[in-house]
Specification:
There is one protein chain. The chain is of the alpha+beta class. Helices cover 20% and strands 27% of the residues. Strands 7, 8, 9, 10, 11, 12, 13, 14 and 15 form a nine-stranded mixed beta sheet that branches. It has a four-stranded antiparallel beta sheet with strand order 3-2-5-6. It is elongated. The two termini are 30 Å apart.
């Protein structure tokens, strides 16, 4: 939400009440701004204004940034008719303007970033920014040095004209690797492994743009990012 803004928009955003109900309430005199009862929905609100609704002060929480350890079975969407969404795991107020900065598939686990700062998430996820995302990958077939070298050089995905950008591929054991990519194509890691004749069995994201998943977070748990993590977009 940007300031200045309308009174009805501010109340609806901070109280999570429907705008239609807010307008009715404003007419009834439920809104007080800087000690003065306001009856017009289009009254201009500045960020410094003190706004009360039915006697309780409303607070604009500003820009927020969370990391979540996503479990399987949750979709990275605001709403979904078939599956629970990652937002159902966040017990926080005023999440209607939030979005996922870099989605994960239903069956993929690990680091998900959620924010209401669109400029920040663009810096994190845009392929032009060359920010790496790192995954732990468990494969169905044993990994070969030839397959790893193909991933490092770039592979041809099905129905794609250009090769993927070079990845950082580190073999961890016979069936596992750590893979870092700076693109965000649809199902990219799974398609990359398919392109080298293998199949992903489990996929877990541990890092996005240098922001590491907090190992203290159990699946389904989350926390606010600290200042260093938020400001990592400015790192060289």
């Amino acid at each position: 939400m940007k300031f200045p803004c309308r009174l009805d928009k501010f109340v609806s955003h901070t109280s999570e009440l429907p705008r239609s109900k807010v307008k009715i309430g404003i007419k009834k005199g439920l809104a007080v701004v800087n000690g003065e009862k306001i009856s017009k929905a289009d009254h201009t609100i500045q960020q410094s204004d003190k706004v009360e609704w039915e006697g309780a002060q409303l607070v604009f929480l500003g820009k927020r940034y969370y990391m979540l350890n996503k479990p399987t079975g949750y979709v990275c969407a605001n709403q979904d008719e078939l599956h629970p969404t990652v937002f159902e795991l966040l017990h926080e107020p005023n999440l209607k303007d939030f979005h996922v900065a870099g989605r994960l598939d239903l069956d993929t686990t690990g680091l998900v970033l959620l924010t209401n700062d669109g400029d920040w998430s663009h810096q994190i996820t845009s392929p032009k920014k060359q920010k790496y995302k790192t995954y732990l990958v468990e494969t169905q077939e044993p990994l070969t040095e030839d397959a790893l070298e193909q991933l490092r050089q770039g592979v041809a995905l099905h129905n794609e004209k250009n090769l993927t950008q070079p990845a950082i591929a580190e073999q961890l054991d016979k069936y596992a690797l750590r893979l870092s990519i700076c693109e965000g194509k649809y199902h990219q890691v799974k398609r990359m492994l398919a392109a080298v004749g293998n199949k992903v069995i489990e996929l877990h994201r541990e890092n996005v743009a240098g922001i590491e998943l907090d190992t203290q977070l159990a699946p389904g748990e989350y926390r606010l990012l600290n200042d260093d993590e938020i400001n990592i977009i400015n790192a060289k």
